[in-house]
Amino acid sequence: MKTKDKILIASLDAFADEGVGQISTNHIADIMDISPGNLYYHFKSKSEIIAELLRCFTTDFVTFFKSESEAISTNQSMWLKLTLGFQLMDKYRFIFCESSYILNKYPELRRLFAKAMQTTKTAIDTFCQHLQKQHIVNADEQEIISLGNNMHLLFTQWPSYIAASVRNGLIKDVKGSDEHLFIKQGVNQILNLIYPYLNNEDKELLIGIQQSA
């Protein structure tokens, strides 16, 4: 693996665990046991690292939701797809947990962040349209638009919601997907949005999937 990729992986983990404000480029260099000069050869600043991680997230998210969409033809495959989607959000959770801090500290990233939000929104809309075409959900065009909006909201804001709940003592402190809190509850929230658009048989199947997960 190239040093640049190792820097991104180390930064992603550090930002998620400690927070962007608590991690400097020197911290990242220490974690990797390389010199600051070696890190600066690849990234001139922490802003550049965050920008590249934002691009990686956008690419990963869009690629994930486009891949094997044809295979989603049942409630079980839909549940699996959403679960894997929340695992991806967990991986990049620092972006959304700290979006206000990042955009205030590094205003040069605002355009890139806006592009990421629009691109991921389009991917979610396409996913919802596929559910409609596969007759997994029975919804008209306006309902599909609304479903896409709400799903995108949940995907992108769930990391912040969990972080705020921990800070305010509403839930105990967990790291990402520990105890399946982040993923399982997030998926269930999405499924609750989809539930009204299923036929009675599929509703029963979906409840069974949720209970056994």
From TrEMBL:
Keywords: DNA-binding
Record's signal peptide: none
DNA-binding region: 24-43
Record bears the keyword Lipid metabolism: no
Domain HTH tetR-type residue range list: 1-61
InterPro entries: DNA-bd_HTH_TetR-type_CS, Homeodomain-like_sf, HTH-type_Tx_Regulator, HTH_TetR, TetR
Name listed for the protein in its UniProt record: TetR/AcrR family transcriptional regulator
Organism expressing this protein natively: Thalassotalea nanhaiensis
